[in-house]
């Protein structure tokens, strides 16, 4: 019983480290997409567009990572690899969707994200993040 608990604790720490790394990378990617510093946009200027895009990315990463973990719960090494690979795939596809939306719509999406008024384009981009995450999660099963 104690050995199972210790194994679970080790797995939780390992998955947690991978999860934090994926979320940090997601933060960096959103920061690159927005003019100015994401930290200032959200915490100082209280920008709803930047916050919505970041939140959708974090939720998306969480969906993907959770599914990868559950899908390989019996094998820690395989689970960590799946979590890392599928998490990176999600972040790449979310970033590509942002670039695609930016390319096919008028104006610069990054500029809209730094606007103090909520812009519908932010909802579109945020929704694509969650949809991409759900599609990747479904592919894991």
Automatic annotation (TrEMBL):
Transmembrane segments: 7-30, 50-70, 77-101, 121-140
Membrane topology: Multi-pass membrane protein
UniProt superkingdom: Bacteria
Keyword list, A-Z: Cell membrane, Membrane, Transmembrane, Transmembrane helix
Subcellular localization(s) per the UniProt record: Cell membrane
GO CC annotation: plasma membrane
A Pfam entry, by short name: DUF350
UniProt record similarity statement: Belongs to the UPF0719 family.
Protein name: DUF350 domain-containing protein
Organism name: Saccharopolyspora elongata
